[in-house]
Specification:
Order of helices and strands: HEEEEEHEHEE
Oligomer: single chain
Number of helices: 3
Shape: globular
Largest sheet: 8 strands, mixed
Distance between the termini: 30 Å
Number of domains: 1
CATH architecture: 3-Layer(aba) Sandwich
CATH class: Alpha Beta
């Protein structure tokens, strides 16, 4: 089955104080879940977050990726979206570990994961090709037992099944 055939769109949603996450694609071949981040007050698209390469069995882990439109940076939206996606990863998907790989100069992203409770685990030389150049990355991870949900987000769990989000979703 190709990736296109394995993607499906859903309406599953998680809501926080500032943002909502909506599961927009679930690629079974890559075992990836992609979410849109939208502002709660008016539904404006702010960015995206995804959990990818979900490994089951003895691993129970996945990679985290995220981006936010530059006009909406440093307003707390990604902080809350990260809490929502971690809640989904640890409570709904029952994962044990989430890993994020970040370029060393990306101070905002490093602060984001550090403040969410991630631990720096290492340095990967020439880890990812971006813009035609191999770039170094720092490896950060958080374990389910180390994650502490933010009291401020008021978040609710995302469902992986279409139409099974929180009440009113």
């Amino acid at each position: 089955m190709n990736a296109k055939a394995s993607e499906r769109r859903t309406g599953s949603t998680a809501r926080g104080r500032l943002v909502s996450l909506t599961l927009v694609a679930h690629d079974r071949d890559q075992d990836t879940r992609r979410f849109e981040i939208r502002r709660k007050t008016d539904g404006v698209l702010l960015g995206a977050v995804e959990i990818s390469r979900i490994a089951r069995g003895n691993f129970q882990s996945a990679y985290l990726g995220y981006s936010i439109i530059s006009a909406y940076r440093r307003r707390g939206y990604m902080t809350e979206a990260l809490q929502l996606i971690l809640r989904h990863a640890f409570r709904t998907l029952r994962l044990h570990r989430i890993e994020a790989n970040i370029e060393p100069g990306n101070e905002a992203s490093l602060a984001l994961v550090r403040n969410a409770g991630f631990t720096r685990e290492g340095f990967s030389r020439r880890y990812l090709k971006i813009g035609g150049r191999w770039r170094d990355h720092e490896r950060w991870a958080i374990l389910a037992e180390d994650w502490r949900p933010s009291k401020r987000s008021g978040s609710r769990t995302v469902s992986d099944r279409p139409g099974r989000g929180p009440a009113g979703a």
